[in-house]
Amino acid sequence: MKESVLPEKNVTAGTAERILVISPNWIGDAVMAQPLLQLLRAAHPGRPIDVLAPPAVSPVWRQMAEVDEVLETPFRHGALQLRERWKYARLLRRRGYAEAYVLPNTIKYALIPWLAGIRRRVGYKGESRHGLINVMHRDETPPRPMVAFYAALATPPQAVQSAPERAALPRPRMAAGVQQIAAVCARLGLDPARPIVAFAPGAEFGGAKRWPAAHFAGLARAVLEREGATQIVLLGSPKDKDACADVAQGVPGDAAFNLAGATSLADAVALIAASAAVVANDSGLLHIASALNRPVVALYGPTDPDHAPPFADLAASISLRLDCSPCRQRECPLGHQDCMVKLTPELVWRSLQPMLAATPGHARGHAQGHV
User: Fold this and answer.
1) What is the percentage of the chain residues whose pLDDT exceeds 90?
2) I need a surface site. Which of 40, 86, 329, 355 has the fewest CB within 10 A?
3) Based on C-alpha coordinates, what's the Rg of the chain?
C-alpha cells in the first residue's frame, strides 16, 4: 500500500475510476467503518479505494487490505482553511475519483469532494450539507450501532436494513504482518517466547469511561498467578501515561510494561496482534483488538455496550447496566462512577480466564490477525 500527504499527478492514467473514503477523526470510528470498505470492494472489485485521513488515524487504515492508498489530511483540527481545502481539492481532481464517501458529519469535509468535482458524493445529512452531499442518508432514531451506521452508506438511502440484515454485515477486519510484530517486540524489549496480555486503561472521551487503575492491577495479578511468565503490556497515548503508571505500581516484579506514549499507533496495532488477550475500556484500542480478532474483554460504564461492541470470535462486553447508565457523560454526573468502580476485577477475570485457557500458551504461536 502506498501512502501520501499530497496526491500525485496523473494517477489515473490507464486505471479504473477510483473511490475516495474520507475518514472519521476517531480511531474507533475508523475501525468500525472498515466493513463499508469490504462492501465497496465487493460491489466494485476493479476500483482502487483511497482513504483521506488525519495523520493520527491513518495508521489504522494502512492495516486494512481493501485500502490502496492512504492520503493524510494537511488541515488543522477544527479550522475551516477554505483556501487550503480548495488547493487540496484541485489535486484530488487529477486522480479521477468517481465517487466519495464522506464519513465525518461536518461541512468542512463535505467541501473537499464537492470542490474536487467528484460526481457522486455520499454521506449523512450532518451539518445541513445539501448540495455538498448529493446521495444523502439520514440518521435513524434510535441511533444505529456504529458498524451498521457506516455500512449503510454502501446501499441506496431508501434501503432501510432490518435487524437480521445488519447482523449479516461483515465484521471489522485488520491484519498485522509477522515481521512488523517481531520488529516491534524486539525494539521494545518484549520476549516473543513469553505470552503477552495487553491492557488499555485509557479513554479519550473522558474519565468516566476509565476502569480504575487499581482494578486493572488486580486483574494483572490474577493473570500472573495463572501464568507467571506473562508480560502485561499497558498501551495508550501520552495522556494515559500516568494512569498506566498507576496500574504498573500494583503489578509485582517487572511483569508490567508501561508503553503509554512510548509507541506509535502502528506499534500498538502490532502489540495487540501479538497478544493472547486484550482488556480495554470503550476506546479505539478496543476496536483495533476486535478487528485483529484477538480475544477481547470490553469494559463499558457510561457508554452503551450495544452501540459499539467488539466483534472478535472470543469477545465479552461487560457492563453493570445500572439504572443511571449509559449516561454518555465525560465525567460521572453523580460523582461516584459506580458503573466502573463496582465492576470488580473478579467479575472481569471470569470472562478473561477462559479466553486465556482457550489460547495455547496464551498467545504463543497464535496467528489470528496476522498476515
Assistant:
1) 78
2) 86
3) 21
| Distances, alpha carbon 131 to alpha carbons 93, 102, 110, 113, in Å | 18, 13, 10, 11
Query: What would be the CATH architecture of the domain defined by 178-357?
Result: 3-Layer(aba) Sandwich (3.40)
Residue 283, C-alpha cell as written in the block: 476506546
When the candidates are 3.40.50.2000, 3.30.379.10, 2.130.10.10, 2.30.180.10, the CATH number that belongs to 2-167 is 3.40.50.2000
Distances (CA, A) of 23 to 51, 145, 288: 7, 17, 15
Q: Tell me the per-residue pLDDT of 117-156, one tens digit each, with 9 for 90 and over.
A: 999 999 999 888 999 999 999 988 788 899 999 999 999 9
- Residue 265: the pLDDT is 96
Mean per-residue pLDDT of the chain? 90
Closest CA to 200 of 269, 126, 114: 269
